């Protein structure tokens, strides 16, 4: 009997305040869409870090002819200088950091240059004799790349030390900024949703003040009076959260796992499984947000 009465009151409240309830659903949907996007973006950043940092290399470029670098004052790198560099890479001081070393000669460097700039104005502009020979170093711990850079920065015969981590750090920095922006927007929208839920509950309580007055007279408890109003806000927020999760699922399925995965072959992107992990979080945030906002409002306007 009590459950049926509460459900009927909830249904009545949702019908009477349909426009406000719809507004709550839409605001919750948009805010949690940003929250979910921020979470998924961070999950993608984590996957990309695991992939790229495992494959990152430090390239030690040797002096080519006519280089103006400080370590190349004697001209092109000599065999003796190459031997010193190879001994250092194989020595005990760098052994804890170096995993594998690959030497790229001028012919290979020239081939890679031609492949990279094929069909552009740069193709064929640099002769093979002017290409840099280099040592490509795979590290045991990619985050230790600064050690290799500092070690060879003043070594004779070395023109430049380039680590791919610098480029990756910039990329991940941009993605992290995008995450922060999404979180800020989501926070603003969540605040709007909480205020709108509070307004909706207050209007609903005011519209049914006669019914709540009668319930007080017959001895109904405060929690029994408040429960229908609380459920109205929670249901509206839960619907908005579910819509946000469903939208993210569609975007990931068709946009990321579909089109983007075909363009970015070679490493994994987020998938529907990740959305299934995020969905309960979004629903929980929506329910807690609506519950807290509703309770604060109800304690003020329906207190016995």
From TrEMBL:
Sections of the chain in a coiled coil: none
Boundaries of every ABC3 transporter permease C-terminal domain copy: 184-300
Compartments it resides in: Cell membrane
Domain FtsX extracellular positions: 56-161
Pfam family, one: FtsX
Keyword Transmembrane helix: yes
The organism's place on the tree of life at top rank: Bacteria
Record keywords, A-Z: Cell cycle, Cell division, Cell membrane, Membrane, Transmembrane, Transmembrane helix
Main location: membrane
Membrane topology recorded in Swiss-Prot or TrEMBL: Multi-pass membrane protein
Subunit structure: Forms a membrane-associated complex with FtsE.
Family designation: Belongs to the ABC-4 integral membrane protein family. FtsX subfamily.
General function of this protein: Part of the ABC transporter FtsEX involved in cellular division.
Name of this protein: Cell division protein FtsX
Organism (species): Brevibacterium metallidurans
